[in-house]
Design a protein that fits this description.
Layout lengths: L6 H13 L7 H11 L3 E2 L4 E2 L4 E2 L5 E3 L4 E2 L4 E2 L5 E3 L4 E2 L4 E2 L2 E3 L8 E3 L2 E3 L4 E2 L4 E2 L4 E2 L4 E2 L4 E2 L7 E4 L4 E5 L19
Parallel strand pairs: 1-4, 2-5, 3-6, 4-7, 5-8, 6-9, 7-12, 8-13, 9-14, 12-15, 13-16, 14-17, 16-18
Antiparallel strand pairs: 10-11, 18-19
Length: 184
């Protein structure tokens, strides 16, 4: 649709998404908005909790049974691809665009972020442009990931370094809906 190519319309939708829709308590309303209006591809059984912030429409693909917790920020000016059964904890930032600090004109540069199946990003993790998080990997709280993470690796620190490996025997299926009535 040509309306989505209009930068003013796109900014309006992003504003509504970040400042109105992301605060709606009913997850079904938020998920409808993200899928139908923002045009994010979100698999069945996945949920995005409140205070989710984005940079633009489209460019987000989330697999099945994923949980994106409160206060996450996705800079989706380049594509962000998330596999199945991924847990993105509170305050995680995924960045896809920045500046070339050595360019005399401070040129913008960027690249996609790919997160494979059964990855867990812990609270306040930061994933920088062009990074791939391998299957089953874990990014510990507060880590800043500047380069690819091998499958089943556990990384932490700034910049993130391998701390250990994770078990390859992962069978869980994530399922979480933030809106559970107190009477049920």
């Amino acid at each position: 649709m040509t309306l989505y190519k209009n930068p003013k319309f796109n900014r309006f939708l992003v504003y509504l998404s970040n400042h109105v829709v992301s605060r709606i308590v009913f997850s079904s309303v938020r998920m409808w908005w993200y899928r139908r209006v923002m045009r994010f591809s979100i698999g069945p059984g996945s949920s995005i909790l409140t205070d989710f912030r984005v940079a633009t429409c489209r460019n987000i693909s989330i697999g099945s049974n994923c949980v994106v917790n409160n206060g996450c920020r996705f800079d989706n000016r380049y594509p962000i691809r998330i596999g199945n059964n991924v847990s993105v904890s509170y305050g995680t930032h995924i960045l896809t665009k920045g500046h070339d600090m050595n360019d005399p004109d401070f040129k913008t540069v960027g690249s996609s972020v790919i997160i494979e199946d059964r990855v867990w990003t812990c609270t306040n993790a930061m994933i920088l442009p062009g990074v791939r998080l391998g299957q089953g990997s874990v990014v510990l709280s507060g880590a800043v990931v500047t380069k690819d993470v091998e499958p089943y690796s556990v990384v932490g620190g700034n910049p993130a370094q391998i701390i250990r490996t994770r078990s390859r025997d992962l069978r869980y299926t994530l399922s979480y809906d933030a809106w559970v009535p107190f009477w049920g």
